[in-house]
Amino acid sequence: MIDTLKGMRSLCLLSFCFFSAFIHAQEAPPKLVVPAPLTEPVSPPGSEPDLPTNVGFPVDVNNYENPLLLFQGASKGLPMSDETNPDLLPPISPYLPGEKPPTGTPDRPLTPDELRLRNLGVKIVSSIVGIRVWDAFGSQLANGVGCYVSADGVILTDTGLLHPEIAEKIDYVTVTGADGTHQKITGFYMADLVTGVTLLQGELTDTKPLELLPATDFRSQQPCHVLAMSEKHGLVLADAKAEVDGALTGLGWLNVRGQDSPGAVGSPVINDLGQVIGIVGMQVPLKSWMNFALPCDAAAAQIRKTRAALQPLANLPRAPKLREVAKDVDFVRAFETLQMRRVESAMRQFVNLTRKYPRSAECWALLGLTASYLGAAPEALNCQRKAVALDPKTGLYWHQLAFAKMRENPNSMPDTTEDREALELATEQRPNDALAWLLLASRRVRDGDLGSAEDALKRVTLLAPNYAQAYYLSAYVKGRLKDYSAAQTAISQSLKLNPGYSEAWYYQGLLFDKNANPSEAAKAYRNTVRLRPNHPNAWKNLAYALKKSGRSTEAKQAFAEHAKRTAKR
Q1: Could you read off the pLDDT of 200-248 as tens digits, one per residue?
Q2: What DSSP string describes 158-179?
């Protein structure tokens, strides 16, 4: 256990070092470039350009695009519970809104898609069950979904529901049918963490099994349906698409995405004929949902074999637990390799470890960290999604997921709510994570929620009073709220903490220009171009500020520099 704690502590330190690179990359002053003396013309004699006649404020402080604002998207609430909330699962089929099952009629005509889903749901409804795992005190340890795969009541589900981490606490397992009937699990035939195949025996011995369809070609995207059980609505069936995870870190998993119900661990993935083509093994608990599933090939192979003897639940595998993974000599070696920054070697080692321990959140998180170091942002995002799916209560993994999403397309903004949801959960579970609060504030500004952004920034400045970025972003928020005095105070503090922060100098110039102080604005813009000669707007703003200060020759030189650099871009 001591080794485990040391490993987690080292992981946090290593992760913090990586994420701190984002801050240091923006705070570290770049190599200073000394501008040419003003007596030396920027352009050859006789070719000095005239300034445009428009000498108005070129970039309004209220509309300035802050480079810290790395997120966009509409704000939504966050579901967070220990189990699937039935109200979050739309009752698509076989019961629809306004219908009283099982003999009621819909209160409106069904669309063709609803009718198609309804017919499929009616066909398979009696084969799907909800599964709940309990301890001796009646507390629920896990819940998910399964399906009958034999006529005598054998149920297929994913091993994650009966993970070794909770196996010793399991006292009994109950099963609920779509018709509301309940039964107990009498034992199991197999529970394999690598293939994900778990075969349970229910009390009912006269059931309608679903057919398994192995060897489905997932190299191209396959239309499918994800199923879950809701005590409130019965069977929940949603359209989705499944395809093989083609990343290096895919390791045989399928990506399953859709717009409606995310299903649950153990949910069968069904084709249009009602055949099982995969089983959900991990569910990323976000509204912008994604499931990771395994093809049903291993399950089909097991069902074709001679059935093993039925075993009591007390014999469920109790290893490897998470602390045992951290003690594995291969894990320790891979961790040490990563600490020595031998990233390529570490990545190969962690790929092997995730094959060995496919349900270890720590292995996936560290594999994602190595991918981040190598600049493989999509790979890193893939791994961090698996980490939060396996361990949604570790705030560090949510932080790493948000960061991986932010880096997925560094030249464009994220187009989903995944990053914001991850940051909300990171700050909820790690309330002292100053960087997560800063990034969350950025996202909230993108969402137009300036009040919430201010609250997050107050948290940052309490936790990390030396974050120049936090005061810079606070100045931006104050400017958007037209509180220019408070904005000036905040930007002054940012520059006090980091005089080499070019963007803070630029925003300082905007504030001086807004307050009709062109002389001070020109000084701020001078500092901006000294620190960042290729800033897209600073030379132009400098030219306007100089002209308004009556320094027309210098203004022409600054504008010529702006034109030259704009032409290069």
Answers
A1: 999 999 999 999 999 999 999 999 998 877 666 667 788 899 999 887 7
A2: EGGGG-HHHHTT--EEEEEETT
